[in-house]
Amino acid sequence: MLRGKSRLNVEWLGYSPGLLLERRPLLAGRSPRSPGRNESSLASTLKTLLFFTALMITVPIGLYFTTKSYVFEGAFGMSNRDSYFYAAIVAVVAVHVVLALFVYVAWNEGSRQWREGKQD
């Protein structure tokens, strides 16, 4: 029998070594996952993706034209050339904020689904 670090540790899978010696299927004690949960998970993921796709298109473009016209040219009185430059910076920052929010939401959604799957 192997000892030390080279020994196979299967307890992290949720099985004790005694169960592996028996000739039973490994999933005998577990309930099969329902297909409805996978479909709702897929629908939730698709809704999240479509929501952030819409945000990625509308927020930077909207902020670009809004800040160019009303903030930089209107409130600050900048020239047309300068307002293009600063409005583009605002749009790039908006893209990064939307991407960061998407990563945060996707990470939390994935960990939530992992926790629910682990409780099965």
Automatic annotation (TrEMBL):
It is a multi-pass membrane protein. Keywords: Cytoplasmic vesicle, Endoplasmic reticulum, Membrane, Transmembrane, Transmembrane helix. Its main location: endoplasmic reticulum. The keyword Nucleotide-binding does not apply. It is found in: Endoplasmic reticulum membrane; Endoplasmic reticulum-Golgi intermediate compartment membrane; Cytoplasmic vesicle, COPII-coated vesicle membrane. GO terms for cellular component: endoplasmic reticulum membrane; endoplasmic reticulum-Golgi intermediate compartment membrane; ER to Golgi transport vesicle membrane. GO terms for biological process: vacuolar proton-transporting V-type ATPase complex assembly. Belongs to the VMA21 family. Required for the assembly of the V0 complex of the vacuolar ATPase (V-ATPase) in the endoplasmic reticulum. This is Uncharacterized protein.
